[in-house]
Amino acid sequence: EAQVTQNPRYLITVTGKKLTVTCSQNMNHEYMSWYRQDPGLGLRQIYYSMNVEVTDKGDVPEGYKVSRKEKRNFPLILESPSPNQTSLYFCASTKTGLANTGELFFGEGSRLTVL
Amino acid sequence: AQTVTQSQPEMSVQEAETVTLSCTYDTSESDYYLFWYKQPPSRQMILVIRQEAYKQQNATENRFSVNFQKAAKSFSLKISDSQLGDAAMYFCAYRGYTSGTYKYIFGTGTRLKVLA
């Protein structure tokens, strides 16, 4: 089954404790991205990657890191989480080039709470 | 910079009736995509409908259709014969292509309630 898989789905952590949210897709997509969803703000892009070893900042990158060492994986790293990073996080992917149909394919979301 | 605006935070519709959700956007690009995504309580993001800007014909998917007005930069979603399962948050989204990269922008969402 074609899918984007995020882990963990739920996480409660404390301020300053490094954490990684993994994202993996099995659709051979070149483009991958991370979003955070907050009430009244919609989805805002954190980072994106057009292909392996190519990453760039989105609209709200502060406090986050990413890496794209393999085509299928795009982990989101919070080096020192703070309470304002409490949010619902989505990973999404799509093909690029002529095969691109435009829409993003989303993971199921990761609910992160930072105390 | 591109923007997407959904001015209706919440809408209600009676079951079996029709409702229209509004979305406006701003861009200087001529070629782009527009989408409506549905987010039910499960939080899953589900593509409802897609519109390519170069296509003048409005997209339709069963009970869902759009009114795409390119000059006015408007992209509204019409849901006909509303069902209880249509209750969800709906996000309007834009995809542009600038400097070799895709740019996705989402609106703030409209929560749709369906009344039995």
Structure explained in plain terms:
The complex is a heterodimer of chains A (115) and B (116). With 115 residues, chain A is mainly β. Helices cover 0% and strands 50% of the residues of chain A. In chain A, strands 2, 4, 5, 6, 9, 10 and 11 form a seven-stranded mixed β-sheet that branches. In chain A, strands 1-3-8-7 form a four-stranded antiparallel β-sheet, with no helix packed on it. With 116 residues, chain B is mainly beta. In chain B, the strands form three sheets. In chain B, strands 2, 5, 6, 10, 11 and 12 form a six-stranded mixed β-sheet that branches. Chain B has a four-stranded antiparallel β-sheet with strand order 3-9-8-7, with no helix packed on it.
Average predicted confidence as pLDDT of chain B: 95
Question: What is the overall silhouette of chain B?
Answer: globular
- Tally the beta strands of chain A: 11
H/I helix tally of chain B: 0
Radius of gyration of chain B: 14 Å
Distance between termini of chain A? 36 Å
β-strand percent of chain A reads over 45%
For the biggest sheet of chain B, the summary is: 6 strands, mixed
Give the count of helical stretches of chain A.
0
What series of H and E elements makes up the topology of chain B? EEEEEEEEEEEE
Q: What is the strand content of chain B?
A: over 45%
Largest protein-protein interface: A-B, 25 and 22 residues
- Report the helical percentage of chain B: under 10%
**Low-confidence stretches of chain A at least 5 residues in length (pLDDT < 50)?**
none
Main beta sheet of chain A: 7 strands, mixed
The SS-based structural class of chain B is mainly beta
| Cα Rg of chain A | 13 Å
